[in-house]
Design a protein that fits this description.
The complex is a heterodimer of chains A (365) and B (34). By secondary structure, chain A is α/β, with parallel strands linked by helices. Chain A has twelve helices and eight strands. The relative contact order of chain A is 0.13. The longest helix of chain B is centred in the middle third of the chain and has 24 residues. Classes of the chains: A alpha/beta (365), B mainly alpha (34).
Chain lengths: 365, 34
Protein backbone atom coordinates (compact mmCIF):
# COMPACT_ATOMS: atom_id res chain seq x y z
CA UNK A 1 0.00 0.00 0.00
CA UNK A 2 2.99 2.30 0.61
CA UNK A 3 3.83 1.81 -3.03
CA UNK A 4 0.37 2.94 -4.16
CA UNK A 5 0.57 5.99 -1.92
CA UNK A 6 3.95 7.18 -3.13
CA UNK A 7 3.42 6.38 -6.80
CA UNK A 8 0.07 8.20 -6.75
CA UNK A 9 1.59 11.20 -4.99
CA UNK A 10 4.49 11.26 -7.46
CA UNK A 11 2.19 11.17 -10.49
CA UNK A 12 0.05 14.04 -9.21
CA UNK A 13 3.07 16.10 -8.18
CA UNK A 14 4.78 15.57 -11.53
CA UNK A 15 1.75 16.42 -13.68
CA UNK A 16 0.78 19.57 -11.79
CA UNK A 17 4.15 20.82 -10.49
CA UNK A 18 7.10 18.89 -11.91
CA UNK A 19 6.12 19.20 -15.55
CA UNK A 20 5.38 22.95 -15.40
CA UNK A 21 8.72 23.43 -13.65
CA UNK A 22 10.46 21.39 -16.34
CA UNK A 23 8.75 23.47 -19.04
CA UNK A 24 9.73 26.74 -17.40
CA UNK A 25 13.39 25.70 -17.23
CA UNK A 26 13.36 24.21 -20.73
CA UNK A 27 11.80 27.34 -22.24
CA UNK A 28 14.40 29.49 -20.52
CA UNK A 29 17.43 27.35 -21.39
CA UNK A 30 16.53 26.35 -24.95
CA UNK A 31 13.82 28.60 -26.35
CA UNK A 32 12.97 28.26 -30.02
CA UNK A 33 10.92 31.24 -31.06
CA UNK A 34 9.11 30.97 -34.40
CA UNK A 35 10.49 33.24 -37.12
CA UNK A 36 7.28 35.17 -37.25
CA UNK A 37 7.11 38.25 -39.41
CA UNK A 38 5.16 40.39 -41.80
CA UNK A 39 5.01 39.22 -45.40
CA UNK A 40 6.07 41.65 -48.13
CA UNK A 41 3.21 43.69 -49.55
CA UNK A 42 1.12 41.63 -51.90
CA UNK A 43 2.54 38.34 -50.63
CA UNK A 44 0.36 37.66 -47.61
CA UNK A 45 -1.11 34.16 -47.87
CA UNK A 46 -4.75 33.88 -48.82
CA UNK A 47 -7.07 32.78 -46.00
CA UNK A 48 -10.13 30.59 -45.91
CA UNK A 49 -12.05 31.25 -42.71
CA UNK A 50 -14.31 28.31 -41.97
CA UNK A 51 -17.23 28.56 -39.57
CA UNK A 52 -19.05 25.30 -38.92
CA UNK A 53 -22.41 25.91 -37.29
CA UNK A 54 -25.61 24.22 -36.32
CA UNK A 55 -28.65 26.38 -35.61
CA UNK A 56 -26.65 29.57 -35.14
CA UNK A 57 -28.86 31.88 -37.21
CA UNK A 58 -29.02 34.38 -34.37
CA UNK A 59 -25.27 34.66 -33.93
CA UNK A 60 -23.93 34.29 -37.46
CA UNK A 61 -24.59 37.83 -38.75
CA UNK A 62 -22.51 39.34 -35.94
CA UNK A 63 -19.87 36.66 -36.43
CA UNK A 64 -19.61 37.42 -40.14
CA UNK A 65 -19.50 41.18 -39.53
CA UNK A 66 -16.64 40.60 -37.12
CA UNK A 67 -14.71 38.50 -39.65
CA UNK A 68 -15.28 41.03 -42.43
CA UNK A 69 -14.10 43.91 -40.23
CA UNK A 70 -10.77 42.34 -39.34
CA UNK A 71 -7.86 44.02 -41.09
CA UNK A 72 -5.83 41.75 -43.38
CA UNK A 73 -3.79 42.60 -46.47
CA UNK A 74 -4.15 39.30 -48.30
CA UNK A 75 -7.19 37.72 -49.84
CA UNK A 76 -9.76 36.11 -47.59
CA UNK A 77 -12.88 34.08 -48.06
CA UNK A 78 -15.44 33.16 -45.43
CA UNK A 79 -17.12 29.79 -45.66
CA UNK A 80 -20.10 29.02 -43.45
CA UNK A 81 -21.02 25.36 -43.24
CA UNK A 82 -24.43 24.58 -41.84
CA UNK A 83 -24.57 21.15 -40.28
CA UNK A 84 -28.22 20.22 -40.66
CA UNK A 85 -29.48 23.53 -39.26
CA UNK A 86 -33.23 23.87 -38.90
CA UNK A 87 -33.37 27.51 -37.78
CA UNK A 88 -33.23 29.26 -41.17
CA UNK A 89 -29.50 29.80 -41.01
CA UNK A 90 -29.35 30.29 -44.76
CA UNK A 91 -31.87 33.13 -44.63
CA UNK A 92 -30.05 34.78 -41.75
CA UNK A 93 -26.87 35.17 -43.79
CA UNK A 94 -28.42 35.48 -47.24
CA UNK A 95 -27.39 39.14 -47.64
CA UNK A 96 -23.72 38.25 -47.10
CA UNK A 97 -23.93 35.40 -49.58
CA UNK A 98 -25.61 37.54 -52.24
CA UNK A 99 -22.93 40.22 -51.84
CA UNK A 100 -20.26 37.61 -52.33
CA UNK A 101 -18.82 38.09 -48.81
CA UNK A 102 -19.63 34.56 -47.72
CA UNK A 103 -19.85 31.15 -49.33
CA UNK A 104 -22.56 29.00 -47.82
CA UNK A 105 -22.56 25.22 -47.74
CA UNK A 106 -25.36 23.13 -46.23
CA UNK A 107 -24.69 19.54 -45.30
CA UNK A 108 -27.01 16.99 -43.65
CA UNK A 109 -26.54 16.82 -39.88
CA UNK A 110 -23.42 14.74 -39.38
CA UNK A 111 -21.49 16.53 -36.66
CA UNK A 112 -18.78 19.15 -36.64
CA UNK A 113 -16.06 16.98 -38.27
CA UNK A 114 -18.28 16.34 -41.29
CA UNK A 115 -19.05 20.05 -41.57
CA UNK A 116 -15.36 20.93 -41.35
CA UNK A 117 -14.49 18.37 -44.01
CA UNK A 118 -17.05 19.97 -46.34
CA UNK A 119 -15.76 23.46 -45.60
CA UNK A 120 -12.13 22.56 -46.21
CA UNK A 121 -13.00 20.70 -49.41
CA UNK A 122 -14.46 23.93 -50.75
CA UNK A 123 -11.65 26.16 -49.47
CA UNK A 124 -9.23 27.85 -51.86
CA UNK A 125 -6.99 29.74 -49.43
CA UNK A 126 -3.38 28.87 -48.60
CA UNK A 127 -4.20 28.97 -44.89
CA UNK A 128 -7.31 27.61 -43.21
CA UNK A 129 -8.62 29.61 -40.25
CA UNK A 130 -11.14 27.84 -38.05
CA UNK A 131 -13.70 29.80 -36.06
CA UNK A 132 -16.90 29.08 -34.18
CA UNK A 133 -20.12 31.06 -34.50
CA UNK A 134 -20.15 32.14 -30.86
CA UNK A 135 -16.92 34.05 -30.37
CA UNK A 136 -15.55 37.31 -31.73
CA UNK A 137 -11.95 37.76 -32.90
CA UNK A 138 -9.90 40.72 -31.70
CA UNK A 139 -8.81 43.13 -34.42
CA UNK A 140 -5.29 41.79 -34.96
CA UNK A 141 -6.24 38.12 -35.00
CA UNK A 142 -5.86 37.33 -38.70
CA UNK A 143 -2.63 39.29 -39.12
CA UNK A 144 -1.04 37.76 -36.04
CA UNK A 145 -2.07 34.21 -36.96
CA UNK A 146 -0.86 34.56 -40.56
CA UNK A 147 2.46 36.16 -39.56
CA UNK A 148 3.56 32.87 -38.04
CA UNK A 149 3.47 31.19 -41.44
CA UNK A 150 6.44 33.29 -42.52
CA UNK A 151 8.36 30.56 -40.66
CA UNK A 152 8.56 27.57 -43.01
CA UNK A 153 8.64 25.20 -40.01
CA UNK A 154 5.27 26.39 -38.73
CA UNK A 155 2.36 24.26 -39.87
CA UNK A 156 -0.27 25.74 -37.61
CA UNK A 157 -0.93 28.55 -35.17
CA UNK A 158 -3.49 28.66 -32.42
CA UNK A 159 -4.85 31.86 -30.99
CA UNK A 160 -5.67 32.60 -27.38
CA UNK A 161 -9.21 32.12 -26.16
CA UNK A 162 -9.92 34.67 -23.45
CA UNK A 163 -12.75 33.79 -21.07
CA UNK A 164 -14.73 36.45 -19.25
CA UNK A 165 -14.05 34.69 -15.94
CA UNK A 166 -10.32 35.45 -16.25
CA UNK A 167 -11.03 39.10 -15.57
CA UNK A 168 -13.59 38.34 -12.89
CA UNK A 169 -16.46 39.63 -15.02
CA UNK A 170 -18.28 36.32 -15.36
CA UNK A 171 -21.58 35.51 -13.71
CA UNK A 172 -20.67 31.83 -13.73
CA UNK A 173 -20.97 30.02 -10.42
CA UNK A 174 -17.60 28.37 -11.11
CA UNK A 175 -15.91 31.36 -12.74
CA UNK A 176 -13.00 31.52 -10.29
CA UNK A 177 -12.20 27.84 -10.68
CA UNK A 178 -12.44 27.76 -14.46
CA UNK A 179 -10.54 31.04 -14.75
CA UNK A 180 -7.64 29.71 -12.67
CA UNK A 181 -7.58 26.45 -14.61
CA UNK A 182 -7.68 28.17 -17.99
CA UNK A 183 -4.83 30.54 -17.10
CA UNK A 184 -2.76 27.54 -15.98
CA UNK A 185 -3.60 25.63 -19.16
CA UNK A 186 -2.65 28.55 -21.37
CA UNK A 187 0.62 28.97 -19.48
CA UNK A 188 1.45 25.36 -20.35
CA UNK A 189 0.54 25.87 -24.00
CA UNK A 190 2.60 29.07 -24.24
CA UNK A 191 5.67 27.34 -22.84
CA UNK A 192 5.20 24.22 -24.95
CA UNK A 193 5.09 26.49 -27.97
CA UNK A 194 8.27 28.26 -26.88
CA UNK A 195 10.28 25.05 -26.88
CA UNK A 196 8.78 23.64 -30.08
CA UNK A 197 5.06 23.05 -30.41
CA UNK A 198 1.77 23.13 -28.60
CA UNK A 199 -0.12 19.84 -28.32
CA UNK A 200 -3.25 21.02 -30.03
CA UNK A 201 -5.16 24.16 -30.74
CA UNK A 202 -8.21 26.08 -29.60
CA UNK A 203 -11.10 25.18 -31.88
CA UNK A 204 -12.46 28.71 -31.67
CA UNK A 205 -9.38 30.24 -33.27
CA UNK A 206 -6.64 28.42 -35.09
CA UNK A 207 -4.97 28.36 -38.46
CA UNK A 208 -3.39 25.58 -40.49
CA UNK A 209 -1.64 25.32 -43.83
CA UNK A 210 -4.29 23.90 -46.14
CA UNK A 211 -1.82 21.37 -47.54
CA UNK A 212 -1.63 19.75 -44.08
CA UNK A 213 -5.34 19.10 -43.72
CA UNK A 214 -6.47 15.51 -43.62
CA UNK A 215 -10.21 14.72 -43.59
CA UNK A 216 -11.51 14.00 -40.12
CA UNK A 217 -13.23 10.75 -39.18
CA UNK A 218 -16.92 11.56 -38.67
CA UNK A 219 -16.89 10.61 -34.99
CA UNK A 220 -13.90 12.80 -34.06
CA UNK A 221 -14.42 14.59 -30.75
CA UNK A 222 -11.37 16.86 -30.77
CA UNK A 223 -10.75 18.10 -34.29
CA UNK A 224 -8.66 20.89 -32.79
CA UNK A 225 -6.23 18.40 -31.27
CA UNK A 226 -6.23 15.66 -33.91
CA UNK A 227 -5.56 17.99 -36.83
CA UNK A 228 -2.67 19.93 -35.24
CA UNK A 229 -1.13 16.79 -33.76
CA UNK A 230 -1.11 15.10 -37.15
CA UNK A 231 0.86 18.07 -38.43
CA UNK A 232 3.25 17.80 -35.48
CA UNK A 233 3.72 14.07 -36.12
CA UNK A 234 4.66 14.98 -39.68
CA UNK A 235 7.42 17.25 -38.39
CA UNK A 236 5.68 20.63 -38.34
CA UNK A 237 5.31 22.86 -35.34
CA UNK A 238 2.11 24.44 -34.10
CA UNK A 239 2.64 27.67 -32.22
CA UNK A 240 0.63 29.53 -29.62
CA UNK A 241 -0.08 33.08 -30.74
CA UNK A 242 -1.13 35.12 -27.74
CA UNK A 243 -1.73 38.24 -29.85
CA UNK A 244 -4.51 36.55 -31.80
CA UNK A 245 -7.41 36.59 -29.38
CA UNK A 246 -10.97 35.40 -29.37
CA UNK A 247 -13.34 36.17 -26.54
CA UNK A 248 -15.82 33.80 -25.01
CA UNK A 249 -17.98 33.41 -21.94
CA UNK A 250 -17.64 30.81 -19.23
CA UNK A 251 -20.04 27.93 -18.75
CA UNK A 252 -22.79 29.19 -16.41
CA UNK A 253 -22.39 26.42 -13.85
CA UNK A 254 -20.58 23.25 -12.92
CA UNK A 255 -23.01 20.93 -14.69
CA UNK A 256 -22.46 22.56 -18.08
CA UNK A 257 -18.71 22.75 -17.57
CA UNK A 258 -18.59 19.10 -16.47
CA UNK A 259 -20.34 18.03 -19.66
CA UNK A 260 -17.93 20.06 -21.77
CA UNK A 261 -14.97 18.68 -19.87
CA UNK A 262 -16.20 15.11 -20.14
CA UNK A 263 -16.38 15.52 -23.90
CA UNK A 264 -12.86 16.96 -24.05
CA UNK A 265 -11.39 14.20 -21.96
CA UNK A 266 -13.28 11.52 -23.89
CA UNK A 267 -11.63 13.07 -26.92
CA UNK A 268 -8.23 12.66 -25.28
CA UNK A 269 -8.91 8.95 -24.92
CA UNK A 270 -10.24 8.72 -28.46
CA UNK A 271 -7.24 10.44 -29.99
CA UNK A 272 -4.91 7.78 -28.58
CA UNK A 273 -6.88 5.22 -30.57
CA UNK A 274 -6.94 7.45 -33.67
CA UNK A 275 -3.21 8.24 -33.52
CA UNK A 276 -1.38 5.62 -31.44
CA UNK A 277 1.87 7.07 -32.84
CA UNK A 278 1.50 9.76 -30.19
CA UNK A 279 2.65 7.25 -27.59
CA UNK A 280 5.84 6.27 -29.42
CA UNK A 281 8.79 8.42 -28.26
CA UNK A 282 10.85 8.31 -31.45
CA UNK A 283 7.87 9.02 -33.69
CA UNK A 284 6.22 11.80 -31.70
CA UNK A 285 8.56 14.83 -31.55
CA UNK A 286 6.69 16.13 -28.50
CA UNK A 287 6.30 12.78 -26.80
CA UNK A 288 7.47 13.90 -23.36
CA UNK A 289 5.17 16.93 -23.43
CA UNK A 290 2.25 14.87 -24.70
CA UNK A 291 2.58 12.17 -22.07
CA UNK A 292 3.16 14.71 -19.29
CA UNK A 293 0.31 17.03 -20.26
CA UNK A 294 -2.41 15.14 -22.12
CA UNK A 295 -1.93 11.59 -20.87
CA UNK A 296 -1.17 12.95 -17.42
CA UNK A 297 -4.65 14.47 -17.24
CA UNK A 298 -6.12 11.03 -17.86
CA UNK A 299 -3.95 9.33 -15.27
CA UNK A 300 -4.25 11.85 -12.42
CA UNK A 301 -7.87 10.97 -11.51
CA UNK A 302 -6.83 7.38 -10.90
CA UNK A 303 -3.85 8.61 -8.90
CA UNK A 304 -6.17 10.77 -6.79
CA UNK A 305 -8.27 7.72 -5.99
CA UNK A 306 -5.15 5.69 -5.23
CA UNK A 307 -3.77 8.41 -2.99
CA UNK A 308 -6.95 8.82 -1.01
CA UNK A 309 -7.60 5.11 -0.62
CA UNK A 310 -4.02 4.39 0.45
CA UNK A 311 -4.06 7.36 2.85
CA UNK A 312 -7.18 6.00 4.53
CA UNK A 313 -5.57 2.61 4.97
CA UNK A 314 -2.19 3.94 6.10
CA UNK A 315 -3.37 6.83 8.28
CA UNK A 316 -2.55 4.95 11.50
CA UNK A 317 0.91 3.93 10.28
CA UNK A 318 2.67 7.26 10.54
CA UNK A 319 2.21 11.01 10.72
CA UNK A 320 3.02 11.47 7.01
CA UNK A 321 0.07 9.33 5.99
CA UNK A 322 -2.18 10.83 8.65
CA UNK A 323 -1.30 14.32 7.49
CA UNK A 324 -1.90 13.36 3.86
CA UNK A 325 -5.29 11.94 4.79
CA UNK A 326 -6.24 15.06 6.75
CA UNK A 327 -5.16 17.36 3.93
CA UNK A 328 -7.18 15.42 1.36
CA UNK A 329 -10.22 15.24 3.63
CA UNK A 330 -10.07 19.01 4.07
CA UNK A 331 -9.64 19.53 0.33
CA UNK A 332 -12.60 17.34 -0.58
CA UNK A 333 -14.73 19.01 2.09
CA UNK A 334 -13.85 22.32 0.46
CA UNK A 335 -14.81 20.89 -2.93
CA UNK A 336 -18.10 19.70 -1.48
CA UNK A 337 -18.75 23.24 -0.27
CA UNK A 338 -17.98 24.46 -3.79
CA UNK A 339 -20.41 21.91 -5.23
CA UNK A 340 -23.09 23.06 -2.82
CA UNK A 341 -22.52 26.71 -3.73
CA UNK A 342 -22.71 25.82 -7.42
CA UNK A 343 -25.95 23.87 -6.97
CA UNK A 344 -27.40 26.72 -4.89
CA UNK A 345 -26.47 29.30 -7.53
CA UNK A 346 -28.06 27.13 -10.22
CA UNK A 347 -31.20 26.70 -8.16
CA UNK A 348 -31.42 30.42 -7.36
CA UNK A 349 -30.91 31.34 -11.00
CA UNK A 350 -33.64 28.98 -12.21
CA UNK A 351 -36.04 30.22 -9.55
CA UNK A 352 -35.25 33.81 -10.38
CA UNK A 353 -35.84 33.18 -14.07
CA UNK A 354 -39.14 31.45 -13.38
CA UNK A 355 -40.37 34.52 -11.50
CA UNK A 356 -39.55 36.91 -14.31
CA UNK A 357 -41.61 37.82 -17.32
CA UNK A 358 -40.62 35.85 -20.40
CA UNK A 359 -38.89 38.85 -21.95
CA UNK A 360 -36.32 38.87 -19.18
CA UNK A 361 -35.78 35.15 -19.05
CA UNK A 362 -32.66 35.28 -21.19
CA UNK A 363 -30.88 37.79 -18.96
CA UNK A 364 -31.68 35.77 -15.86
CA UNK A 365 -30.46 32.56 -17.53
CA UNK B 1 -11.70 33.88 0.16
CA UNK B 2 -13.33 30.65 1.34
CA UNK B 3 -15.83 30.87 -1.48
CA UNK B 4 -13.07 31.27 -4.06
CA UNK B 5 -11.06 28.37 -2.59
CA UNK B 6 -14.21 26.21 -2.57
CA UNK B 7 -14.91 27.05 -6.22
CA UNK B 8 -11.36 26.14 -7.21
CA UNK B 9 -11.40 22.87 -5.27
CA UNK B 10 -14.78 21.95 -6.76
CA UNK B 11 -13.57 22.73 -10.29
CA UNK B 12 -10.48 20.56 -9.81
CA UNK B 13 -12.49 17.62 -8.50
CA UNK B 14 -15.18 18.04 -11.15
CA UNK B 15 -12.60 18.03 -13.93
CA UNK B 16 -10.95 14.90 -12.63
CA UNK B 17 -14.28 13.20 -12.14
CA UNK B 18 -15.07 14.13 -15.76
CA UNK B 19 -11.96 12.25 -16.87
CA UNK B 20 -13.28 9.11 -15.19
CA UNK B 21 -16.76 9.41 -16.63
CA UNK B 22 -15.31 10.30 -20.04
CA UNK B 23 -14.27 6.71 -20.44
CA UNK B 24 -17.89 5.65 -20.24
CA UNK B 25 -19.34 8.48 -22.32
CA UNK B 26 -17.17 7.95 -25.39
CA UNK B 27 -20.04 6.25 -27.13
CA UNK B 28 -22.26 9.32 -26.75
CA UNK B 29 -19.63 11.83 -27.80
CA UNK B 30 -20.84 12.26 -31.33
CA UNK B 31 -24.23 13.46 -30.17
CA UNK B 32 -22.74 16.51 -28.50
CA UNK B 33 -22.21 19.52 -30.73
CA UNK B 34 -19.13 21.36 -29.60
Amino acid sequence: MDFVFWISAAVIAYVYAGYPLLLAVWARVAPKAPRKGAFPAGQWPSLSVIVAARNEAARLPARIENLLDLPYEGAREIIVVSDGSTDRTEEAIARYVSRGDVRFIAVPAGGKPVALNAGVAAARGDILVFADARQQFAAAALIELASNFADPEVGGATGELVLDCESGSSASSIGDGVGAYWKYEKWLRRHESRIWSTLGATGAIYALRRALWRPLPADTLLDDVLTPMRAVLDGWRVVFEADAMAEDWTAPDGAVEARRKRRTLAGNYQILAQEPRLLIPVVNPVWLQYVSHKVGRLVVPWALIGLFASSVMLARDGWTYALAFAAQAAFYALAALGAWLDAKARHDASGFAADLPVAFGKEAR
Amino acid sequence: MLRRAAQMAFTFVMMNYAALTALFSLRRGREVWK
